[in-house]
Design goal:
- With 142 residues, this protein is an all-alpha fold.
- Helices cover 68% and strands 0% of the residues.
- The radius of gyration is 47 Å and the shape is elongated.
- It starts with a helix and ends in an 18-residue tail after the last helix.
Length: 142
């Protein structure tokens, strides 16, 4: 550990011996550029900046309108898909319901025909129905 500490101290001393070079200062402002010698912005530069700002504003408004119309179109497609899905679901439900009603009616008709044509039906008509058994009791797991 002492050896590592000595190495670290030596590295710090070597780093302190090196001289850091500071960057050169920025050049002094000249009369060339956006500022006039009196320090004001020229009229043509101000006009150019205003035109660029107005153009950026127009583009931002157009982008906002495009985004709004895209969102509305997406919502319409989504609502249309949902509406179609509900309509298809209702149609399938109605088909299943009609099919179930037809099967139930057919089952009732077959049951009635079976009881009417059975010779035992006439003898059993005067007797009471057979007793029903309670459901079996299953052991509970512990």
């Amino acid at each position: 550990a002492r050896k590592k500490l000595r190495q670290h101290q030596q590295q710090q001393q070597q780093g302190a011996e090196t001289v850091a070079v500071a960057p050169s200062p920025a050049p002094a402002p000249t009369s060339e550029g956006p500022l006039s010698p009196s320090g004001t912005v020229s009229g043509s530069l101000l006009s150019l900046a205003k035109n660029q700002m107005l153009e950026a504003r127009r583009q931002a408004i157009a982008a906002g309108m495009a985004a709004k119309s895209a969102r509305e179109a997406f919502e319409e497609v989504l609502a249309s898909a949902e509406k179609q899905g509900k309509e298809i679901g209702r149609a399938v439900y109605e088909q299943v319901r009609e099919s179930a009603a037809a099967q139930a009616e057919e089952a009732r008709t077959l049951a009635k025909e079976a009881t009417d044509s059975s010779p035992m039906a006439m003898t059993n008509a005067s007797s009471p129905p057979p007793p029903t058994l309670p459901p079996p009791q299953l052991p509970r797991p512990e």
